[in-house]
Amino acid sequence: MESCTEEISYVSQQEAIEIDDMLMGPLGFSVDQLMELAGLSVASAIGEVYSSSDYTRVLVICGPGNNGGDGLVAARHLHHFGYKPSICYPKRNTKPLFAALVTQLESLSIPFLSEEQLSVQLSSDYDIIVDAIFGFSFHGTPRLPFDSLIRKLVSVRNQQCTHQKAAVIISVDVPSGWHVEDGDIFGVGIKPDMLVSLTAPKLCAKMFFGTHHFIGGRFVPQSIIDKFKLKPPPYPGTSMCVRIGNLPQTNLSAQKGIFASSESLEEVEEDPIYQFQKWFSNALAAGIKEPHYMVLSTADIDAKPSSRMMSLEGVNKDGFVWQTNYGSRKAREILENPQASLLFYWGPLKRQVRVEGFVEQVSEEESEQYFSSLSRDIQIRPIVSKQSRPIHEREVLRQQYRELEEKYHDRTSIPRPKHWGGYRLIPEFFEFWQGEESQVHLKLRYSMEEIDGRRVWRIHRLVPPLAESASSL
Ligand SMILES: Cc1cc2nc3c(=O)[nH]c(=O)nc-3n(C[C@H](O)[C@H](O)[C@H](O)COP(=O)(O)O)c2cc1C
């Protein structure tokens, strides 16, 4: 499989809109043509990575706009490539173009399912889920029914984390729910395994750290390339799409139970958050169980430390977010002393990441948004949770849980209890530790420094001399 590792150019939302206007204006393209090219690129990229014999069952979730149309076209091509697509298209676009695409699919006996017909655990019914809900013109917050469909896709990714059999997610152009330029702002959105950028990658693609990034834009005329300073990759042969960047090698390392390649610390990101996301994606790709579990250490006003396991709920350019009880011991310690550290350990890759910084409570709005993204049964848990307090009657809690289940059984969402919400660690120090077979373990440190009033990351590489390697652990 060919790939392109040349420098990638990204476009803003405004530029993407201008490119579309130019294509469909002076350059004479029709929307049908662009949709056909997009859908074919998506289907071809899927075909390059996921064989129709191993990944036969495909669910294509289509939004109401052009991204949904791209999904409909992709479904038709996937059918002809030997896959078995089903479509969920809850808000059908009534324009003739979209109605014609639906007719084409119906004539191939491709089933259309309502949102209610989809099971809660999509992974048991499908091998591939194509997210064609929202594209580059989307802004704002997803509404019903797309918000709950996006939640289902997020829970597929959580299953991947917990090592259960999970479908792979392919996002068309922009992972739905992400900001077109800033990406997964709250860090709790869809984490696709594959992104197929169309025409040119949008800025949010910089935050994509899944395994397969493809671009489909072979038709883009030179005048657009020049005007928007695009750097289109060389497309091999007659392909409609090409991989951008290399496949991570860590899959193999993990399967063989050996160390990840030390090359992984040769090409490092300038921004440690990107470096973290890269390693996190590597951990997911390597099949590591629950890579989002971390140790959170806090200390009280007298600097007496305490540690506990936590679940990382999101990471983005602002920091690392987790959810907890605001009446817990850790919450009290954070109030007294906002310094904290996080520790991740991904054994099969022999990798450890330490993150230190100060902690702030996330906004009410962010906690609400996160809470509403959870499934109903998970929302009930924090209501009955009595962290860091003695529990006298376990049966009382069980009874309370049952009562809440009964009370909310016909509701899709439950109000967030005020004692439950998020914290964010804003990092000031990172250490990436890579174990090596030679025992000469590598460390990469990032520390935040102020230079001319600007906060910048300074990178230090620590490669111990051979003789000291035994004590370099
Ligand atoms: C793997 C694992 C993940 C956990 N994730 C969370 C979490 O995300 N939020 C939370 O409040 N507690 C979580 N806990 C429970 C905490 O470790 C801890 O017991 C609880 O938060 C009370 O801690 P504190 O008394 O130090 O405040 C988790 C425990 C384990 C073992």
User: Which strand order does the major sheet show?
Assistant: 1-9-8-7-6-5-2-3-4
The description of the largest β-sheet is: 9 strands, mixed
Strand tally, please? 18
What is the straight-line distance between the termini? 39 Å
Pathway: Cofactor metabolism; pyridoxal 5'-phosphate salvage; pyridoxal 5'-phosphate from pyridoxamine 5'-phosphate: step 1/1; Cofactor metabolism; pyridoxal 5'-phosphate salvage; pyridoxal 5'-phosphate from pyridoxine 5'-phosphate: step 1/1
Family: Belongs to the NnrE/AIBP family. Belongs to the pyridoxamine 5'-phosphate oxidase family.
Binding site for K(+): 67, 131, 176
Pfam family, one: PNPOx_N
What does this structure look like?
(6S)-NADPHX binds at residues 66-70, 135-141, 173. Belongs to the NnrE/AIBP family. Belongs to the pyridoxamine 5'-phosphate oxidase family. Pathway: Cofactor metabolism; pyridoxal 5'-phosphate salvage; pyridoxal 5'-phosphate from pyridoxamine 5'-phosphate: step 1/1; Cofactor metabolism; pyridoxal 5'-phosphate salvage; pyridoxal 5'-phosphate from pyridoxine 5'-phosphate: step 1/1. It comes from Nicotiana attenuata (Coyote tobacco). This is NAD(P)H-hydrate epimerase. The strands form two sheets. A nine-stranded mixed beta sheet has the order 1-9-8-7-6-5-2-3-4, with helices on both faces. Strands 10, 11, 12, 13, 14, 15, 16, 17 and 18 form a nine-stranded antiparallel beta sheet that branches. The chain has two domains: 13-244, YjeF N-terminal domain (Rossmann fold), CATH 3.40.50; 272-390 and 399-462, Electron Transport, Fmn-binding Protein, Chain A (Pnp Oxidase, Chain A, Roll). It is built from twelve helices and 18 strands. The protein is 30% helix and 24% strand. It is an alpha/beta fold. The two termini are 39 Å apart. It binds flavin mononucleotide. Flavin mononucleotide (FMN) binds at residues 293, 306, 308-311, 322-325, 328-330, 387-388.
